[in-house]
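Predict structure. Chain length: 110.
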Amino acid sequence: IVQLAADRAVLRPGAVLVPVDLAEDNSRQLALASQCAARAGQPLVALTIVPPGADKAAAEQALRARVADVVPAPVSTCLVRQGSVADTIDLVAIEQHAGLVVMGLNAQGA
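Prediction complete.
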């Protein structure tokens, strides 16, 4: 969202990326991401990351259903990827030109 130039910082809007763990309740982060995207006039990109060998079509269907339950407008993109969670979020944020990533906190063990 911020591009650093030699003598200044320039704000650049971009897509709003929302990683979704299908095993968790993430309705709050989906709602917030949707509101941010709508107010900024930017696309909303939902992402879920599955383990190798997982049924990607089933994961995409589950992701679309989860998003449809919370987000009032259609999501620009729903993506299913495999890999390390942190690395994949980073790669997708770059690939989708995300200006904002909206994530929840996993409170397990806290």
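Summary: The chain has a mean pLDDT of 87.
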